[in-house]
Amino acid sequence: MSQPIKVGFIGLSTTGWAASALAPSLLQPSLQGKYNLVAVSTTSEGSAKASAEKYSTQTGHAVTAHHGDSSLISSNPNVELVAVSVKAPMHKQVVLPVIEKKRDFFIEWPAGRNLKETIEIAEAAHRQGVKSFVGLQARNSPVIQKVKELISSGAIGSVRSTTFVGLIPRETHFWPPVITPEYVFALDKANGVTALNIAGGHQLDALTYLLGDFSTINATATTIYPTATVLDANGQVTSRTISTSIPDQHSISGVLKSGALATISTSGRKLLLWEIDGEEGSIRMESNSSVFINLNNPTLYLNGERVEVEGSSSETVGILGSAWAAYADGKKGQYATIDDAVKNHRLLDAIDRSLAEGKTIVL
């Protein structure tokens, strides 16, 4: 039996996304023997010490604290894989020193603010010969895996079209019309965390994972909420507002390399409705809880009949844990790499060019 992969985790504090989702998925009992958290790194000495104490207690062994420059945890001889969970504008500057130290790495999507940065990260990874793992975990949903199985088995015949309708409800407060203070940076498109980049990126990866790549793509968009109201630290509405011109509603269509037609819409009130139609039948996925397939399992129907999917009751931790397991087991194609992130960014870049130029983009 192979030894557990020794993980150093950048951005793992005692609270926040990494603490509430990524770390629990990595440390869940089903992954014992596959990973060993040995070090953490945060921006300050105090937060790093608190995090190290928390996870030393949780894991039952000493976890080393680092803070500041990412090269420090990457130089730890006990670290084999560095996980990076920081804000997107910091991705490139944090992960490049990790790669230069020839450490394999996990990095959250979008793996850079834009296509250029993601390509730089990918080129560095290839140059140093390190393995990569990117947080595009929708493909690890047991429902998505079941759909892939159904399509491959010919259950619906040749796929002719797919329609995806998704919505990020305003109540999440990630994007306008109401946002939390820590998400103000998302209002600057240059930071790479628009709703299209984040939610759209996860959706597009799942779509192309199941149905193959696009050959052409066309997009239209509008800005329904030109102003964002900022909440205070307690979640109460303030008088502070910020103007934004970032489109928040999109209609995207294109032809897949298979010849199938794909349509994606981010409007309406349906959180998630995804239909895949073939010559012999249809698949439908629905969710009333979230548009993020990487965090929640939609309900699956085949020709109108509900399909029970093993493991679908386990939501965020289960899906993220499946991605960690796929990487540890070396199941290439079942976890996303930095090359998948580049491909995803090329598609998002084509959507932006279509919006700017008002025409169909040939990929």
From TrEMBL:
Domain named Gal80p-like C-terminal: residues: 142-287
One Pfam family in the UniProt entry: Gal80p_C-like
Residue span(s) of domain Gfo/Idh/MocA-like oxidoreductase N-terminal: 5-135
GO MF annotation, one: oxidoreductase activity
Phosphoprotein keyword on record: no
Keyword Signal: no
Key words of the record: Oxidoreductase
Annotated InterPro entries: Gal80p-like_C, Gfo/Idh/MocA-like_OxRdtase_N, Gfo/Idh/MocA_oxidrdct_glycsds, NAD(P)-bd_dom_sf
Protein name: NAD-binding Rossmann fold oxidoreductase
Native organism: Pholiota conissans
